[in-house]
Amino acid sequence: MNNYTMPVLVDPPAAAPRTVYTVASGDLRPAANVTGWPTQQRLEADLADAVAALGWQTRRAHPVDAGAGHGFIDSQRAGIEIFQGIPVDAPLVVVEAVWQYSHHVLAGLRAHRGPILLVANWSGEFPGLVGLLNLAGSLTKAGVRYSALWSEDFTDEWARDGLKAWLETGEVLHDESHVRDLPPLPPDPEVALGVALARQLQRRPAVVGVFDEGCMGMYNAIIDDELLNPLGVYKERLSQSALVAEMSRVSDEEAHAVRAWLDAAGMTFHTGTDEATELTDAQLLSQFKMYVAALRIADDFGLDAVGIQYQQGLKDTVPASDLAEGLLNDVSRPPVTSRDGTRELYAGRALPHFNEVDEGVAVDSLITNRIWTAMGMDPATTLHDIRWGESYGTDFVWVFEISGSVPASHNGGYDRSYSMRQPPMYFPLGGGTLSGVSRPGEIVWSRIFIMDGVLHADLGRGTVVELPAAETQRRLRATTPQWPIMHAVLHGVGRDQLMARHKANHVNVVYADDADAADRALRVKAAMLDAMGVRVHLCGDVAL
What we know:
The chain is of the alpha/beta class. The chain has helices at about 30-55, 75-85, 105-110, 130-140, 155-170, 190-205, 225-230, 240-250, 250-265, 280-300, 320-330, 360-375, 470-475, 495-500, 515-530, and strands spanning about 20-25, 55-60, 90-95, 115-120, 145-150, 180, 205-210, 235-240, 270, 305-310, 380-390, 395-400, 420, 440-450, 455-465, 485-490, 505-510, 535-540. Helix 6 crosses helix 15 (about 515-530) and helix 12 (about 360-375) crosses helix 15. The protein starts with 18 loop residues before the first strand and ends in a 5-residue tail after the last strand.
């Protein structure tokens, strides 16, 4: 006889007929969840009405927490417990009107056997579209089947037809005719350059510094070493605590020198005295110390690119990292010397920064930097959130927007850039952005992601357009006015095509000198990625 205590296994509940179960993944930051909750409620009501019109009903799989002031799943443990009560074969909708942490629901979605639908409202007010795209990328990496829909209020015919198809068949099929696999590339100077750069990287690997992986639940943004190393890219895993420690060793005089350089370059800082709501000189001083510290640590480890997580770890410790990140991404930036003052670090070079430690962007920005440098073009690159968009005239103009890590050259220079305090909802200790309106010009956009266990890359072309000042301000007010904005028109890729295909919340963008140079650079990039073993896909109107 033994005294083992056997676990009691509880069978999952049975699914109710013609019932759609809904969950809402949220933020880890309570202030963000409370602020976004009214918008989430409207989306859930709109979806319920659309489902009811098709003869079904919705059942929310978890209650609203009156004490917390919202009804979001706000931790991985909460998500695991909630999914215990969801029938595993039931139709399940993840409803997102805000930014969400994908790992809150990933465990439950991995085990779910019924059809899964991700929905978001087509709105820039809160980044629900960004959250949907991140969850889509995470599920794609995990090999979980899902469908996705987006709509302003789910009364339009397109969204209703998609919802009806999902209820009847368990999937929504979107038009992805804009995507085609990379064809064989005949030898020419661009292909030769791409192949040579790939061989160089694989023979003398690069090292990317990762200040703590897994920012904000972005499972899709982590690339395992087994996929990364064959490219010729290795990680130096660093702790954000080391960054804070190094910041403490940077003198006030060094930080003031960074500020003086930026003032002389014409950058505007919108400062005040209220630490809780305004950008202060003390916050900026801390950010400049982070900039110096990041370069010194990069020099210590011989890094070719660097990524700072910031959220969650640093948000309660130091002001925002975005201003430092934007400075790192630019060839023209305040000089920083080694600790002994004998060497300028990365002189005349950008140190590519991959915001939110998105390792797909790490690879992308690293190779982009090498290609653009080899071609004699400005290698300043950044990522943006695919935040939202609307038609303007005959074009659909995307709002590409990020928390402030753009290089000043994207705005047309430091004299066309400014810094505002980050929103307290996300950044309790404040700090400034590196903000502005991206200048008109030709861009190459791209995304590296994991699908079917291997690395893929989508490449496309676009044009940044100039909109009237009033329209720019309207779009900023409809999103996050403190952040830098890019008005992007993608060539041959429609709104719904991009949303259906893009496997992440981020898109990497870099300017070219003109349209011809952009086409040639894209060709080099395609050849380099292909030679590295990445599966390359061309999106929209791409001239090869």
